[in-house]
Write a structure and sequence with these properties.
The protein has one domain. Helices cover 65% and strands 0% of the residues. The chain contains five helices and no strands. Helix 1 runs parallel beside helix 3, helix 1 packs antiparallel against helix 5 and helix 2 runs antiparallel to helix 3. The longest helix is centred in the last third of the chain and has 34 residues. The protein is elongated. The two termini are 26 Å apart.
């Protein structure tokens, strides 16, 4: 399964998950949940997700380290400041919250059920290989960071 590691950019994985959520909601409209206020909740969640993503991006830019998630071995520094004090993967967390916003907007149980698929894929094919690369690059410094800060939240 290593053939899938760092092959699909995480934003594309997020878009594919969003597409699957939409397709499931469209194909099975009878299971839609009437949810007054779903749009407002979706907007709030989308703002939170975007803010988390932007905070992660800003920390990378401030540290002047490459952002390309397909080439973690190119990192020049271990980012531990800002939002990275609370999550080792805030950009993926932000994407997850954006997908949660989309599922709230769709108000469909199948849309919510797709969220764990995103997490499983990102954990296995993106985060685990990134963590191997970080351990190789930063050794004990990364081990200490990994012990102190959770993967998602």
């Amino acid at each position: 399964m290593r053939a899938l590691e760092h092959r699909i950019p995480p934003p594309l994985v997020g878009l594919a998950t969003a597409g699957l959520m939409w397709l499931l909601a469209r194909e099975f409209p009878q299971y839609r949940i009437p949810a007054p206020g779903a749009t407002k909740a979706a907007i709030l969640l989308a703002c939170i997700g975007a803010a988390i993503d932007l905070a992660g991006l800003a920390a990378f830019l401030k540290a002047r380290t490459p952002i390309n998630p397909l080439k973690p071995e190119k990192a020049t520094s271990l980012v531990r400041s800002g939002i990275y004090r609370h999550s080792r993967n805030p950009m993926y967390l932000g994407m997850l919250v954006l997908l949660l916003a989309w599922s709230a907007y769709l108000a469909h149980p199948a849309a919510f059920a797709a969220l764990p698929l995103f997490v499983l894929y990102i954990n296995r094919f993106q985060i685990e290989p990134e963590e191997r690369a970080m351990a190789k690059l930063f050794g004990a410094e990364f081990d200490d960071y990994r012990r102190r800060v959770r993967r998602w939240l």
